[in-house]
């Protein structure tokens, strides 16, 4: 018996490590799945470390300076291929000598390959500058910020960092980095890294330099920078808020639960491995709700509701410290491994902090989003693992996020919460700082949880969840009793009753959203006026609720809310809010199209390049 056990484990151990090495592991040249979004050829040569020495030139809207890359390469590798998009290359050295390089053909959305001859060197130095229209960067004029000073921020995900950093821009190719950034002396620089010089150091006439260090290997889309008039408030021993001075107090109030969120996530999924967790609240043109840049989440100011009702956004970005930043989708076709896992963990953090009923309501809102996506998204777009040509910029979030999270909740229901929790904890430990694929995740889950149990395998429907369109029949549909009464209030309102009959003042944000989101699509103008007046929806401070209302107003061609729509589209540039409103306006005949076109001509320049590109496709000139 003893002999047999020994024999079994002798077989099991090599099998286990072989599995781990298929997606990265400690071997710096471990094989990677092919990333169609990158020009890199990581099987020949890989970037391991990026060292940036850059100056931010706000007048010309460019970074200029030098990137020094440490690489690992096969002995016979003669060149390394980097990603670049619009970079102006001034000089390239390999080791100490000038190196020959070529910039290949630009392919749509992917930029061009920058191929450098190595001549045996394992360090290369690139003198370059970014283009003024680099899609990762938004250079803000003083009028676009709260402090009336200039501001710059970057957004790397998914494939934008190649517009300001010449490196291999593929999520499987993990890199450490350090940086020295020179900025105008009245501004401060922060990055997704350890801040070595909180107050900066003198760097010539009217300038200051800031230095940073990220010692953990990260996927390159997580290199991020913000430069502006920034203040800081601690909210806990490891947590704090950076924002422009007039925003930082509101930010600290809204983020008061951050340290507790970290404690909850660590208790579930193991130690937070990045040191500090701070957030940077950006000016209103930030194109996303949030971005999980390591050590320094970037946040839209539109989550500042004044009552902490939208902090699930922070829970989400914090959760990426495990799912995404620690264990990372190797290719964007598997981004549900980042976002679906993260949405599931976001829900678990919310449940621990605010209770089960709160969590069920969030799940029920997401469930409705999934149902809507199943009617609007093509079957191919309904798969968790994307197949075929994948546009790394286009995510159907209801699938990637909510179907992904529902998958894990379904697994949780079937195998039990304790078993899933301990599995996930071990998964984050096993694959820490490694890339992951759908295939490798399913293999790992089968090895550690299913373990050949055919009945369990059948109940889980793992492959159907991962690879097929639609929602498998074993899906756990959320039941939120906090929404039970809402259909009655909607019906009473639609039948002509006063809007104020609904207990709006007692509802939380999600109940208010449910009420608005389940209104019939067409409502008479009189009903819309009644709704708006009862709850001051044109000006309500909660931007998620205001967005839900303005979608109703626009879809009904309700012209009295036109000025509120214009204000909403002028005052912030979050893609999730801005794109659907323009889309609805363009569907609304002459009134909506005129409003959209005229307004967009005026405000386009305030939007982030990523959002501009999206709205350009929606608002076509007359
Ligand atoms: N990583 C994403 C943002 C992202 C996704 C950037 C795809 C580029 C391409 C971030 O974690 C996120 O999911 N943000 C959401 C908020 C969240 C609460 C669903 C957002 O920005 O709305
Ligand atoms: Zn996310």
Description of the structure:
The structure is a single chain. The protein is an alpha+beta fold and 622 residues long. Among the domains are: 326-467, Orthogonal Bundle (Neutral Protease, domain 2), CATH 1.10.390; 485-618, Peptidase M1, leukotriene A4 hydrolase/aminopeptidase C-terminal domain (Serine Threonine Protein Phosphatase 5, Tetratricopeptide repeat, Alpha Horseshoe), CATH 1.25.40. Helices cover 38% and strands 20% of the residues. The chain contains 19 helices and 23 strands. The strands form 5 sheets. Strands 1, 2, 4, 5, 8, 11, 13, 14 and 15 form a 9-stranded mixed beta sheet that branches. It has a 5-stranded mixed beta sheet with strand order 17-18-19-21-20. Helix 3 (258-269) packs across helix 5 (336-354), helix 5 crosses helix 7 and helix 17 (575-586) runs antiparallel to helix 18 (589-603). The longest helix has 21 residues, at 356-376. The relative contact order is 0.08. The model is unreliable at 1-24 (pLDDT under 50). Bound molecules: ligand BES and zinc ion.
